[in-house]
Amino acid sequence: MTQDKKPVVIVGAGLAGLNCARILTSQKVPVKILEKSDGVGGRVRTDVVDGFRLDRGFQVLLSAYPEASQTFDIPSLEMSAFEPGALIRLDRGFVRLSDPWRRPSKALATVLSPAATLGDKLRIARLRKQVCRGSVTDLLNRPRTKTEDRLRELGFSSKILDRFFRPFLGGVFLERELETPSSFFEFVFRMFSEGDAVLPRDGMGALAQQLAAPLPDECLELHAEVKAVSKNQVQLANGRAVDAAAVVVAVEPSGVDQILPGFPKASMRSVTCAYYAADTAPLVEPILVLNGTGRGPINNLCVSSQVVPNLAPADQSLVSVTTLQDFSTSDDRQHALRAQLEDWYGPSARGWRLLREYEISHALPPVSDRRSETSVSHAGVWVAGDHLETPSIEGALISGRKTAEAILSEIDR
After folding, report:
1. pLDDT band at 103 (very low <50, low <70, confident <90, very high)
2. Which of 135, 225, 337, 396 is deepest in the core (most CB within 10 A)?
3. Number of domains within the chain
4. Are 348 and 240 in contact (CB under 8 A)?
5. Greatest CA span in the chain, whole angstroms?
6. Distance (Å, rounded) from C-alpha 360 to C-alpha 352?
């Protein structure tokens, strides 16, 4: 197709749309990004509240992600890592389950940990060896079964499933039933095995800011709500039309079919993340805490400012609490969360100040059946997003790149 100096119009400034735009502009292709909100990042944004930096939902970047490692300027993000492993809350208190490969000094504590049987710990070692073999592509293309079925097939006990895998993977997949395809679980397990879970100095929103930084100022238009799209034109809600050399729809999965009728709908998983300001940190290390009891609203918790001090004022600590449970009201949820926090950390938790609560109804799509496609188009319009790859930052970046490459192959420059 000919370009005629018309821009490629990208609807949505999430990671997929931004990465697509970054690649196109690097090849001198004019781009116009239309974003209905007040900023870039989509589901990966960071708000500043009373001097605290709050990610919109608890998120991490896995440093072993191949696409992310090639896309981002990692040193400039000033990443800090979580301690490998987790503290697991059981009825008797907190117990540790460490990664003995990266923390050999804690190997004995891990062997003695009541979070799992000795057999389970040996099975983790075998699983780690299996998933780190071969290519990532081969891993993702393995036959699909439910994650729980795969773990039981490997011999893991109900004990470790309930105490570790359900809360840990619940925080990744946003479902504790472990129904996510095992191929994606094995990919995620490999990423955790080969690298660290990290946070940027300025919060996860820094990822989107870095992608947007090299784009020309005039190519991004905020508060631009799109009503409909066609192969070479975008209709905005205010009645304006924008002609295009090509159109990319890179909005959240639940919104694609609203502007591109007939595109398959993607069901989305929900999550709520509550942030608290604490005078004294309930943890002295940058480690994830998992609810291994299966009771109460908390799925996972961390003190974000123990990972990245810059996320909180110097005299305060930032506590992040994630729940997958539904509540009728925010007051009901806060009552339940505070009761469990006080049970875990004592009366001091009563004084924690709620900074903000994020109820995210469209937080994560399921694993896509279309992941193996080079790129995706519908009615002449390109579609990009992690709902077409793996539900992750990595998936969004890959989808954005694939879409840009497909457009470059068609545009006569």
Report:
1. low
2. 396
3. 3
4. no
5. 69
6. 22
Residue 333 structural domain: 46-80+199-203+269-364
The answer to whether residue 1 sits within a structural domain is no
Q: Identify whether residues 30 and 103 lie together within a single domain.
A: no
* 225 and 352 together in one domain: no
- Give the integer Cα–Cα distance in Å for 322 and 60: 13
Give the count of beta carbons closer than 10 Å to the beta carbon of residue 316. 20
Nearest residue to 319 via CA among 354, 344, 271: 354
Nearest to 281 by CA among 302, 296, 297, 299: 302
CB 354, CB 275: distance < 8 Å: yes
- Does a structural domain hold residue 240? yes
SS3 3: coil
Q: DSSP letter for 165, please.
A: I
What's the Rg (C-alpha) of the chain? 22
The model's pTM is 0.94
Tallying the residues shown for the chain, one arrives at: 413
pLDDT in tens, 33-77: 999 999 999 999 999 999 999 999 999 999 999 999 999 999 999
Rounded Cα distance between 25 and 385, Å, is 19
